[in-house]
């Protein structure tokens, strides 16, 4: 073996490094039932972007169910994912819907945001999914125009018009 190959002979246990599974778990209440949640992978926005781009191609019930399953799996256990899917599909669960699920997953992702930001910061990177929070209000927008009540039509003629007739 040459010297470079010997120098590069090493073992790294990446499983002991940063992992979202080591972060504290939270919980969400959906439709009256509480579900534990875990930190979603920082690639969740990529998954959601792919789903959004595929949306026009999804034509079957199985396709929609697969999308729901992928979204649920980002934060819920596999057992809870199946329960949630059944509840979303059920005609008796008025509140639980795909839109409700997306909003819940977004809110979970935002709660774990500081942990994800810290992991990126430790690597010397900026979280690519982080939304800027120090945006200044655009100065080019005009203030909304006030609605002024319309003037009542008057039967009185201006003084100049009366004077001209006299």
UniProtKB/TrEMBL annotation:
Residue span of region Disordered: 123-166
Start-end of Low complexity biased regions: 156-166
Top-rank lineage group of the source organism: Bacteria
Basic residues bias spans: 143-155
Name under which the protein is recorded: Tail assembly chaperone
Organism, scientific name: Streptomyces andamanensis
């Amino acid at each position: 073996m040459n010297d470079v190959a010997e120098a590069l002979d090493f073992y790294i246990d990446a499983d002991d490094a940063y992992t979202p599974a080591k972060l504290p778990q939270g919980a969400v209440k959906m439709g009256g039932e509480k579900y534990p949640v875990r930190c979603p992978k920082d690639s969740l926005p990529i998954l959601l972007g792919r789903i959004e781009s595929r949306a026009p191609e999804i034509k079957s019930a199985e396709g929609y169910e697969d999308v729901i399953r992928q979204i649920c799996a980002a934060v819920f256990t596999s057992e809870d994912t199946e329960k949630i899917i059944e509840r979303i599909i059920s005609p008796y669960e008025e509140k639980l819907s795909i839109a409700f699920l997306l909003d819940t997953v977004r809110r979970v992702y935002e709660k774990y945001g500081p942990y994800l930001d810290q992991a990126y910061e430790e690597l010397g990177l900026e979280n690519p999914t982080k939304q800027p929070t120090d945006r200044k209000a655009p100065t080019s927008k005009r203030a909304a125009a006030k609605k002024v009540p319309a003037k009542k039509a008057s039967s009185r003629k201006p003084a100049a018009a009366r004077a001209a007739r006299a």
